Amino acid sequence: MTEATSTQNDWNHKLTLAQEMLPLISQLHRENNVVTSIYGRLLVGVTDIEIIKAHRYARRIVERELPLDDTLPILKELVQLNLGTASIDLGRLAKNYSRTEGQDLRAFLEEQLGDVINAGSELEPRDVVLYGFGRIGRLLARILIAREGMYGGVRLRAVVVRKKGDDDIVKRASLLRRDSVHGPFNGTISVDEENEVIWANGTPIQMIYSDDPAAIDYTSYGINNAIVVDNTGRWRDRAGLSQHLESKGVERVVLTAPGKGDVRNIVYGVNHADITSDESDRVISAASCTTNGITPVLKVINDRYGVKHGHVETVHAYTNDQNLADNYHKGPRRGRAAALNMVLTETGAAKAVSKALPEFEGKLTGNAIRVPTPDVSMAVLNLDLENEVEKDEVNEFLRRVSTDSNLRQQIDYINSPDIVSTDLLGSTHAGVVDGLATIASGNHLVLYVWYDNEYGYSNQVIRIVEEIGGVRPKIYPERKDPQEIR
């Protein structure tokens, strides 16, 4: 048999197995509200080719392609179990099972998934309102619509904006449908102008026109106990954001910008467990994209090696806050043409880290350089540590954190010599460590962390919304604390 024939036969074998997996994946989703993945790559609405690609992606995690022969038997057993709502990582299950010594597969799965077997598969829907519909607002809408289709937990009910003209709703729908950075909406969108409703994949989104966050009766639209996500950035302190709580039908408020004063800044995966049901936590902040990008990495490095002090330099994509052409701007340098210049500016992200991790109070400085790219940024963490480190050991630790820890959704790890910013577009992680760029010398460590400052951050916001809404699906198999990784 020639090498070409062998390769073709191998491909055909993979294709056969992937096609056998498709109905099993759909059955689990349809009947049990279970979403499957391969090392975090969701198998939702995928093709046979995409299933093969997801298994090949495992090379980045475990340094070998994941055989479909390993995951198909797991899927066959899963459909026989009476599972409840969950997100199940087939790659992790296959890896864990390979380490057992001849254990029966059914017994292994019952051990790994005990908490979700015979559990309910229905999540009580939680109403969500987006106050504002800009870059982050529209991405939040896309994610919420997709999440509702996956689990049914969060339910986007309305968007509140100021009316810009008679064709406002048509324009808003068009911006949701098409995005120059993130591409077309995955599904169908139509507009009911008479009732001011945008229909997206069967989800009715009520457009509410108002300029007063305290004067809306959401209950008149059938919206109750809603979580309002304020993505306007117009109010950032408790007094301003608490206006939303005066509107009928609002239970909690989440700000998509760093909060001021006593507003708690939450980075999901780091301090989300600190959120309480107290009155003070009815208003919280999801911090900034940069704070989310760097805080999980800083936490695990500090817990492992100890951080004495450091500097964060952010190379950040330009934003709507900058001018397209040279013009007046209230801030220094930001008035210069964003698409033509690197613009040195300040960032509050370094100081904001301490709002999620108090142990970093006074330890970090920071600056930012805005660059002529529309999305995906990088943070350079220049750290002085309490202990000496070696590059390979740090990288292996961070790689393991990205695969085996409970920060898997926050920290990703890559080790490719050809990765550039556009390759990270659409990343759902808070930050992605670029292992080849790591520098370690004695007590000095430099880490390069990519992050999709729009989409990755928006996913972090949704995780907070699901958490406070009580509809966050559990992920199996369960992960370790990063400091348990050896």
Summarize the SSE layout with pairings.
Elements: H1 3-32, E1 34-38, E2 41-42, H2 48-57, H3 59-62, H4 68-78, E3 86-89, H5 90-98, H6 105-112, E4 126-131, H7 135-150, E5 154-161, H8 168-177, E6 189-192, E7 197-200, E8 203-209, E9 226-230, H9 238-241, E10 250-255, E11 264-265, E12 283-285, H10 289-305, E13 307-317, E14 343-345, H11 349-356, E15 364-371, E16 377-385, H12 391-404, E17 411-414, E18 431-434, E19 439-441, E20 444-451, H13 455-468, E21 475-476
Helix pairs in contact: 1-2, 1-4, 4-5, 7-13, 10-11, 10-13
Helix content: 25-40%
**Helix count, per DSSP?**
13
Structural class category: alpha/beta
Low-confidence stretches: none
| Spatial ordering of strands, largest sheet | 6-7-8-5-4-9-10-12-11
How confident is the prediction overall: mean pLDDT?
A: 93
- The count of β-strands is 21
Tell me about the biggest sheet? 9 strands, mixed
Describe the structure.
The protein is of the alpha/beta class and 486 residues long. The chain contains 13 helices and 21 strands. It has helices at 3-32, 48-57, 59-62, 68-78, 90-98, 105-112, 135-150, 168-177, 238-241, 289-305, 349-356, 391-404, 455-468; strands at residues 34-38, 41-42, 86-89, 126-131, 154-161, 189-192, 197-200, 203-209, 226-230, 250-255, 264-265, 283-285, 307-317, 343-345, 364-371, 377-385, 411-414, 431-434, 439-441, 444-451, 475-476. The strands form three sheets. It has a nine-stranded mixed sheet. A hairpin with a 4-residue loop joins β6 and β7 (197-200). It starts with a helix and ends in a 10-residue tail after the last strand. The mean pLDDT is 93.
